[in-house]
TrEMBL record:
Organism this protein belongs to: Streptosporangium longisporum
InterPro entries for the chain: NTF2-like_dom_sf, SnoaL-like
All copies of domain SnoaL-like, residue ranges: 9-111
Protein name: Nuclear transport factor 2 family protein
SUPFAM superfamilies on file: NTF2-like
Length: 158
């Protein structure tokens, strides 16, 4: 266990839970990449932090908890839970997420989150729409496209 890298992960999620994107950003390497089932692949601290700032700004009731943090010299993992109301539908979401990290120069250079998109879509959009969105490749692509368009619009207004 690398205590310094484990503390870096804890610091990131503590800042996230406090809704402090500036403190989150200090945990990331300038060349950070981020991926998850929705945003798939974002490159660079500006784009990655743009996503986090957008998500924080859209969810007044976001609650973040982290557990099972592990870290070695070059990689780490954590499990985190996000609880919030999905803005478009007003539905409550409890998303269970497994995160993987790579470290470089004492910072997070790679952050990848994995969660069940089908499960998320059922919570966020309800049945039957969420079930269809979670299963159909075309509609999953629509979720991704909408998310990226929202991020581009958000970053264009900053």
């Amino acid at each position: 266990m690398n205590d310094r890298n484990a503390a870096l992960i804890e610091t990131f999620y503590d800042a996230f839970a406090r809704r402090d994107p500036d403190a989150m950003e200090r945990c990331y390497h300038p060349d950070v990449t981020f991926g998850d089932p929705v945003f798939q692949e974002l490159e660079g601290r500006d784009r990655v932090m743009g996503m986090w700032r957008m998500l924080l700004g859209r969810s007044a009731d976001l609650s973040v908890t982290v557990r099972d943090v592990t870290a070695r010299d070059h990689e780490g993992t954590a499990h985190w839970t996000a609880r919030y109301t999905f803005g478009r539908t007003g539905r409550k979401v409890v998303n269970e997420i497994d995160a993987q990290f790579r470290f470089e120069d004492g910072l997070i250079v790679r952050h990848h989150d994995d969660f069940d998109l089908r499960r998320w879509s059922k919570m966020a959009m309800g049945r039957p729409v969420g079930v269809v969105l979670g299963w159909t490749p075309m509609l999953r692509a629509r979720i991704r496209s909408t998310a990226m368009q929202s991020l581009q619009e958000f970053m264009g207004t900053r």
